[in-house]
Structures are given as structure tokens and as C-alpha cells.
Amino acid sequence: MSDISTWLDKVIETLGKVPVAPASDTATETPPAEEDEAPLTGIAAEIQEAIDAGGINIAIYMIGDPDSNNDREFKRQAKKWAGNHGAFGMSGSSVKKDHAMPLSQDPGKLVTKLLDAMKASLGTTETIPVANVALFSHGGQRSMQINSNGAGGGEGWASAGSNVVKKFVAAVTPSLSSDAKIHLFACTAAKDRDPTKDADDPTRRDSFAEDLQEMTGAEVWGHENAAHTTGNSRLVQVSDEDGDSNAERYQIRDVLARKFLRHVDSSLSDAQMGYLDQQLDISEWIRNSLRFRGSGSSLRDRHQVFVEEISMMGYDTLFDLLIADSAPSAAAFRSMFPEHDQIDKLVEGAAAVHERFHRDMDEKERAIGAARSSPDFPTNPS
Q1: How far apart are the first and last CA of the chain?
Q2: What is the DSSP letter of 139?
Q3: Nearest-5° angle of CA 352, CA 353, CA 359?
Q4: What H or E segment, with its residue span, contains residue 351?
Q5: CA distance 321 to 358
Q6: What are residue 293's DSSP bridge partners?
Q7: What is the distance, to the nearest Å, from the Cα of residue 76 to the centroid of all Cα atoms in its chain?
Q8: What does DSSP say about strands 101-102 and 88-91: parallel, antiparallel, or unpaired?
Q9: Per DSSP, which regions of the chain are E strands?
């Protein structure tokens, strides 16, 4: 028994000399809490909010002749557009919201400086998505007056093949969102140069708007005639719907005429719609419904505000607003344009167009029914 006791004493003595490692607390240790990033404030917060909503908007206008009221109109309308759509621009060396940029430099340089400054404000190198770019300038079928001569104005003309336009395309294209639009508030920039040729004929001569669409891949909107900068209802949407890198033109009167005919009878063939349009002047009725009617600058201003937003809404939304029994409300427009500064004018302008559209709508529907009984009405192919 004494031998066992002696042995146990030695074992206990030996164990007492072995250092015991402290229990690991890695499983229970709480890592230090990461510090929350400080919330964005000021212009950085506004930029991030625009990015989260789909991308930023940019407005650029030609300075022109400071003594010409016609040229000063571009600045007036660009400033309104910028305020209505929360556009960002450079004011000196700072980014400013609700701001339109004058062509004190070529548009490509203005866009590059703006995007670089916005990245610096956010402290990021990631691409800033661009949703809409609006150019306010004199235009023609093949060019726009956007070649800057500096802060004094007097911009020169630039065609799609010019370095000015190529550099603008290079600056803006990498940042364009998937559904980006370029709005050309300029005369005849989307006028058809080859009306006798099919939309996808590779030999057709392109307008400035078509060239710009093919260069950027964005949806481009422009006017097909010479008229007011923003209140021109002869709009054309230019896009590449079939992905063949050849832009197609969609005139507002033709698109809405087809939508109306499909609304009346979804079974109508292309030949039947063409017959009805020709016999009943459907597209001309659409065109007249969208044009300004009345006297007085206040009425013209309200119509202009509505027409200006067609390129932002697109043809589908426009037709839905027109075909509805009631004119669109302020709430409807506020949901589309939450930052718009002229909602009241927008509502009134839309109501005037809606009223003219509905004034003849029932008559057109009855005429379509009668025309279908005509002996020369095309038969629907089996």
C-alpha cells in the first residue's frame, strides 16, 4: 500500500511541474466590431441616390451668340430640363445638381470632367452609370453645332465623323446604362435622308441621330423638322431593335397610329393597317392631336413641357396615357418624374393633348368599322 502511495505522490508531483497551456478562447472571442462607414452627405449622397435609381442625367447646351435671343433659348430650356430631371453638371470645379453645362469646352471633355469629379466625390473608381444625356443646340440632318470655341460661344458644326463627336462618344459610351437615352433638342437632327429606302437597307444615308445611335448603342431621340427646341411634336425614336448595328427610325405619328389600330382590333395585318391609315388619315390625326393648338404663351408653355417629356416616357407610356379615359393626374407624373419642377404645367399640357385625341377617337373607331366593309379592304392572310 505504501508503494502505491509513493507512486501516486511522484505522478502528482510530475504533473504539477508540466506547464498547462491556457485554454484557447478563439471560439468565444468576439472580433472587434467593424466601424460603420460614415453615411454619404451633400452632393455625394445625391450622386449615389441617382445611381441607385438607374443612373445620372446630363444636360449640355450651346452658348451661341450671347446677343441672340434664339441662341439664349438653348440655355433657358436646358436649365429647365436639368431642374426637372435632377441633372448633374460641373459648376467651376464642383459637381452641382439641377445644373446644365454650357459648351465652354467640347462635350466629350465636359462629360469626362464631370464623371471624374463624381468618382472623386464618392471616393470610388467604379463607373458612374449615365441614364440620359440631353444636347441643346442648332442642328441639321448631318451635324450639330457642338464644336466648342470656348466660354465666348460661337460654336462650330460637328458631323458624326468629326473628332468632336467621336470624342464625345468615347467619353459617354462606357458609362451608358443598358436603357440609356440621348435626347437631341435640335432641328432636323433625326430627319430621314433616304425616305424611299427600307429602314434596314445598308445603303441608306443616315441622319445625325442614326449615326449617333450606331456609334453609342443608346436609344437616340430627335426631331425630323425645324421647330421649337423642346416643344416640337414631330419626334423620332432611333434604336437598333433587331441588333444588326443599323439604326431604325420610329416616327411618333406612325408608331401611335399602329398602336391605335391594334387597340381597336388586334387581329389587323400590316396590309390592313396600312390601308386604314391611308384611307382614314390615322397618323395625321395622331400628329394633329400632339401639335400645339391655341393662343397665348402660357398655353404654349404647358404644351411644350408635356411634349418635352415624350422622349423620356417613350411611345408605349405615351399611348397608355392618351388612350386612357381620363387625362393623367399629377400623381401619375410625379411617380414618373419625382424631381420635376413643373408638374402643374405637365398635367395641363397632357390634358390638352388628351382632350384633342379623344375628341375624334370615337369617330375614328366607327370609321375603321365601316372601312372594313369596303370591297377593297385587304383580306387577312390565312
Answers
A1: 113
A2: B
A3: 90
A4: helix 343-371
A5: 11
A6: none
A7: 20
A8: unpaired
A9: 56-61, 88-91, 94-97, 101-102, 130-136, 143-147, 156-159, 176-185, 219-223, 235-239, 248-251
Domain coordinates in residue numbering, the chain: 42-246, 252-374
pLDDT-derived band of residue 135, with 50, 70 and 90 as boundaries? very high
- Asked if residues 191 and 210 have their Cβ atoms less than 8 Å apart, the reply is no
**d(Cα 363, Cα 368) in Å, to the nearest integer?**
9
8 A C-beta contact, residue 265 and residue 254: no
Average pLDDT value over all residues in the chain: 91
| Residue 163 cell numbers, joined | 473628332
215 neighbors 253 (Cβ within 8 angstroms): no
Amino acid identity, residue 37?
E
**And the C-alpha cell for 243?**
441588333
Cβ of 113: how many Cβ atoms within 10 Å? 17
For residues 79 and 299, give the distance between their C-alpha atoms in angstroms, rounded to a whole number.
20
Chain mean position to CA 356: 27
Residue 18 has what pLDDT? 45
pLDDT digits (tens, 9 = 90+) for 274-287: 999 999 999 999 99
Residue of 255, 243, 310, 308 whose CA lies nearest to 282: 255
- Beta bridge partners of residue 95, listed in sequence order: 90
Return the SS3 of 220.
strand
Residue given cell 388619315 in the structure block = 281
Cβ(81)–Cβ(308) under 8 Å? yes
Inter-axis angle of helices 270-280 and 343-371, nearest 10: 100
Between 28 and 198, whose confidence is greater?
198
The band of 46, judged by pLDDT with boundaries at 50, 70 and 90, is very high
Nearest to 90 by CA among 64, 112, 63, 62: 112
Task: Match 405637365 to its residue by C-alpha cell.
Answer: 346
Grid look-up 440631353 returns 134
Angle at 340 between CA 323 and CA 135, to 5 degrees: 90
Distance between CA atoms of 206 and 200, rounded to whole angstroms?
11
Does the CA dihedral 228-197-180-126 come out positive or negative? negative
Q: What are phi and psi of 250, to 5 degrees?
A: -130, 105
Q: Provide the sign of the torsion angle of the four alpha carbons 22, 26, 27, 31, taken in this order.
A: positive
Enter the pTM of the model: 0.88
**Residue at 96: amino acid letter:** K
